[in-house]
Amino acid sequence: MALLQVSQTSDSVINYLACLRTNIVPLLLPDNLDENALHVFQRKLAANLHVSDSACKVVGTEQHTIDSKLALLMTTSGSTGAGKCVALSAKNLCANAKSILAYLPANSTDTTLLSMPLSYSYGLSVLNTHLTIGASIVLSDLSPFDRQFWTLLADRSIASISGVPQWYRMLLRMRFTQQHLPALRYITQAGGKLSEAEVETLAKYAHATDKQFFVMYGQTEATARMAFLSPDKVLAKPGAVGQPVPGGEFKLARSGEAQEQAGELCYRGDNVMLGYVDNCTELAHFAPPEWLNTGDIASIDRDGDVTIVGRLKRFIKVAGERVNLDALETVLIDNGHDVRCAGKDDRLIVAVLKHSKPGQLTALIPIPARNVQYVELEHWPMLSNGKVDYQLINRLAENK
Fold first, then answer.
1. Cα–Cα–Cα angle for 308, 393, 83, nearest 5°?
2. Same domain? 105 vs 232
3. What CATH number corresponds to the domain at position 394?
4. Which of 295, 311, 327 is the last residue of a domain?
5. In Å, what is the CA distance from 122 to each residue of 115, 345, 374?
6. The domain containing residue 160 runs over which residues?
7. Contact 84, 108 (CB under 8 A)
């Protein structure tokens, strides 16, 4: 059992592959993880090794009983190490790579840009799929705000890029759709929801430049990908995430019988995790679930395409009414307001950037003004996987 801290380097890739080859189960962690969080994982899992780009240290001698199916542990939140880890098998990794390659137009002569952390399931899936077909990978921690980023895209003939919503928002601010990138053949987006206007902008750019834009959906609990929206549907369904990846299946767990009613999205496939791990005793045996309850509220249209409408945990009750924070945030963003919505029961928190001009939001928020708190932030607090840290927004609001 090893704690494996990874960065955007070939050394980290080699360490990851070496663990898989030698049957050392690694927990993938970002290289900048807080020392306190590292100690929490060490205490929970009683790791034998601590591996980084610069060192391999023996940190424990406890002998573990480990299920033979277990290949890898990953965190789900990208935050500070609280909570359980996701246990993945070699079968999970291979099945998901095979599914992704069945719909993405990747080939062995491609060079992809990998700028997402390897400790994040989306980033790791890009690595795994391209290694599977023998393609080339450029590891980079450059931001779209760095001039070298654009030089790299052009000089290395990058065939594909992948990113989360915040990353694409940076690309759009840097006029990505006006760049001449003839080698770029397709782009993929997952890890959260772009606004429909942003999706349409990227889809129109892809169509005009003979590229393909894939909107995708996944979770660490499903190794990475569960759904993708075919590029020819993106303009018609900019809010959807599409159909299950090859080999996967969806169903909705509804409280009622109406077929048009949204419900919790459940997924079945060979990429569904073995289970969760909270401590070293749980490494010994797993009983994988047949269906993964995603925690996402979704609808499925007549074509079988899924649209995510919210998270079970992203609901609050204000003045007796249930509020879908994801849906409200989407409405505000679609109406031109760059905001993030958080909160707890009886208090909606609307976060705005200090340099922005949010305008009049009250008319779009169907909640009594006394229950709404506005918070100005210098920048959006982000997790290491590029997603917005809503828990931190809640904590910051409490201190205002």
1. 70
2. yes
3. 3.30.300.30
4. 311
5. 11, 32, 32
6. 91-311
7. no
pTM of the model: 0.85
Amino acid present at 318: V
Within-domain flag for 38 = no
Do both 209 and 339 map to the same domain? no
Structure tokens at 145: 């705000």
Token couple for 27: 């927990």
**Which of 262, 283, 311 is the last residue in one of the domains?**
311
The series of mean pLDDT values per 10 residues for the chain, 400 residues long, is 97 98 96 88 94 95 95 74 82 98 98 96 97 98 94 96 93 94 97 92 97 96 97 97 98 70 94 96 95 94 93 79 84 86 89 76 81 90 84 87
As a whole number of angstroms, the distance between CA 199 and CA 303 comes to 20
* Closest residue by Cα to residue 314 from 345, 270, 352, 358: 345
Q: What is the pLDDT of residue 80?
A: 41
Residue 233 DSSP SS3:
helix
Alpha carbons 96 and 352: distance in angstroms, whole number: 37
Q: Are residues 271 and 390 in the same domain?
A: no
- DSSP SS3 for 282: helix
Residues 262 and 174 in one domain: yes
Asked if 335 and 370 sit in the same domain, the reply is yes
Burial class (CB in 10 A: 0-12, 13-18, 19+), 82: exposed
Residue 43 has φ and ψ, to the nearest 5°, of -70, -40
